[in-house]
Design goal:
15% of the residues lie in helices and 20% in strands. By secondary structure, the protein is α+β, with helices and mostly antiparallel strands. Among the domains are: 124 residues, no CATH class; 154 residues. The strands form 4 sheets. Strands 12-8-7-9-13-14-15 form a 7-stranded antiparallel beta sheet. It has a 4-stranded mixed beta sheet with strand order 2-3-5-6. Strands 1-4 form a two-stranded antiparallel ribbon. The longest helix is centred in the middle third of the chain and has 14 residues.
Length: 402
């Protein structure tokens, strides 16, 4: 009847479909959808979610009546996303840029909040006896959901709910079931999901890099995780585990004289595993991947050559993962120990601009062992040893010299 008030709908909103959710889990069907942006196919582990979540109307809300003569009303714009901390700022930037590697490297060293299951043993953590994983069923799949801040947690559950906080890299080490998937910050621009096979593959890869070995002291699982069907990168061939890992560090041209002429035999600062840098065969590639573009850098992207030190690390405990930040507040947020100038990230990875995810370590002035090499890498992609350290005479012998 004209002039009457439309009755409120009695049916609940339809459950979300896969194409109506930005993370594929835990979001309601939107009232109106925005045009989807172009989809970029990527062979990476996962695709960070970049679309903002929308809210379905409550059952008590009345739809707005429209007539043929009424002008269409545009849906209200979503408020801009506000990251709750530095981790979410980095995740958001990576998602907006479509950089899976940056998203992944940030998430690996982040702390996440996970709701505690009602029947989990009090005070238990992932991997502990009595710990019950808070699995939920979403779209016919079993998920474990975690959040990178109390604000993201409050978006989906009671903010007063009991939670356990754990580093993501250690959480995935205890992964309970290959068939379970993982979701972080579902329904937000800093959300993503990973199948269980990729979680286990990522955990194995992180373990190879030594990530998470020095944090929180959580017990290791008694049973090895099943081998993943796919892994983030090709597994390294099995080698002699009794042999030390070879490390590498780029040295400035101004330092060459100290080594070759004065017999300098120490190394300090940020270093990397030589095996992970083997594909970086030019000065420009190393410059980009290692973040050598900091202010007052002695390196140049168009250099004709670059010199690197390579040596076996006989005392791995001296090579620490440099958790920290660019200021004291950022260092505390990471619960780290290092403050460095930009482009330092403080998450255990080299601050490169490319797609490489390279583990980074920091060492405080250790002596190089006998046989350490000084190598020149040319812009043509070739390399040759220049000198070898003789620890007995404390001198560098040029290659070919007797």
């Amino acid at each position: 009847m004209p002039g009457s008030t439309a009755a409120a709908p009695t049916a609940a909103p339809a459950p979300p479909r896969q194409d109506q959710t930005d993370a594929g889990v835990g979001t309601a069907a939107p009232v109106a959808t925005r045009p989807a942006g172009p989809v970029t196919e990527s062979p990476s582990l996962f695709t960070p979610v970049s679309a903002a979540a929308t809210r379905a109307p409550a059952a008590s809300e009345s739809p707005v009546s429209t007539s043929t003569s009424a002008a269409p009303t545009a849906p209200p714009a979503d408020p801009p996303f506000q990251p709750a901390n530095e981790v979410e700022e980095d995740l958001h930037g990576a998602a907006e840029a479509g950089s899976t590697d940056t998203f992944l490297s940030t998430l690996l060293l982040a702390r996440v909040l996970m709701p505690v299951a009602a029947d989990s043993a009090p005070g238990s953590r992932p991997g502990d006896p009595g710990f019950v994983w808070p699995a939920v069923q979403l779209d016919g799949q079993t998920f474990v959901v975690a959040y990178t801040s109390p604000q993201r947690l409050a978006d989906h559950t009671d903010p007063a709910a009991e939670t356990v906080q754990v580093r993501f890299v250690q959480l995935i080490r205890k992964w309970p079931d290959l068939s379970w998937s993982f979701a972080v910050n579902p329904g937000t621009p800093v959300g993503a999901k990973l199948p269980g096979e990729q979680i286990v593959g990522l955990a194995n890869w992180a373990a190879e890099l030594g990530l998470g070995d020095d944090a929180e002291g959580e017990p290791e699982p008694n049973v090895e995780a099943p081998a993943p069907a796919s892994s983030p990168r090709q597994a390294a061939p099995a080698g002699d585990l009794t042999r030390p890992i070879v490390m590498q560090k780029a040295i400035a041209p101004s330092q060459l004289g100290y080594y070759l002429e004065r017999g300098y035999d120490r190394v300090s600062g940020f270093v990397h595993r030589a095996s992970e840098l083997a594909h970086l065969t030019t000065p420009a590639a190393l410059y980009q991947a290692l973040g050598l573009n900091h202010p007052e850098s002695p390196f140049a992207p168009d250099a004709e050559q670059i010199y690197v030190l390579r040596w076996p690390a006989y005392r791995p405990s001296l090579y620490r993962i440099p958790y920290g930040g660019q200021n004291e507040a950022a260092m505390r947020a990471m619960e780290g120990w290092v403050i460095e100038r930009p482009p330092f990230r403080g998450n255990g990875f080299a601050p490169g601009e490319g797609s490489d995810v390279l583990a980074e370590f920091k060492v405080d002035s250790v002596r190089l062992p006998h046989g350490a090499q000084l190598v020149r890498i040319d812009a043509s992609g070739s390399e040759r040893p220049v000198a070898v350290l003789d620890a007995d005479t404390l001198s560098w012998r040029e290659v070919g010299e007797r």
